[in-house]
Give the backbone structure.
Amino acid sequence: MKKGNRITWVALYMLMWATSNFLPEAFIDPPVFNIAHRGASGHAPEHTLPAYQQAVEMQTDYIEIDLQQTTDGSFVAFHDEELSRTTSGQGKLKDITIDDLKALDAGSWFNQLYPEKSNQDYKDLQVPLLEEIIQCLHPDVSFYIEIKETKEGAMDQLLALLNKYELIESNRVVLQSFDEDILKKMHELEPAIPLVQLIHQDRLSSIDYQQVYEYAIGAGVAHSLLNQQRVKQIRQAGLLVYAYTVNKEEDMKRLMEWGVKGLFTDYPDRLEHVKKSLDKP
Ligand code: G3P
Ligand code: CA
């Protein structure tokens, strides 16, 4: 083969590899993943270290983390835009510094709302940094991180953190987002990370699943929007199906029967029990 032709073929191969779906072995015919939604958030205050630790004790496969940034750029685990539901603070997460956020009580709200589950240890818990969570739970735990609103350069910053703790090479991280531009950018930066496209109700019928397959390994959908036909349609595009947030045993059973490959739940202990009762790996 002439040198020019060879270079063209190599370039073409590299382009195909870079743009193709990359499926790590763990995702080829995987078991049903038990994904602890904001930690074991049915048992302890969401996105706090006790919620994550309890999930690990309950044999969860992944800890789900909602990733946001403070005004000075720190990655923290926090679900809402507003501080008021789950902390003693007011205002928006994106407007607070990490020092001010750390001074807030992120656990007492849970004791007040669920007195039957309250625990004095939850009082004055802090909102955790992503790095603190990884350090605290490393090296046994895998993370299913939802990228929410982030700043310029956040993907490079996140990638550096994942690499620092070798989460990509040890196959212990999945990234998900409703924002397809974020996922495409991450796929370009590091195609080895398994990505999951979260899909809102209004896009469920119109989205091109074959196109999602170009950069993602799966689709995440609210469980109430799924039916057997929809699961089949998504799987036919080569994508795995993940369902949120599934807390009732009958829903867990039905979704598994339809071929859903991961359930986000506030009760990882309940899901583990259901999986065992169905003899699911
Ligand atoms: O990760 C899927 C699910 O968590 C999305 O919903 O609102 O709980 O972040 P939300
Ligand atoms: Ca989430």
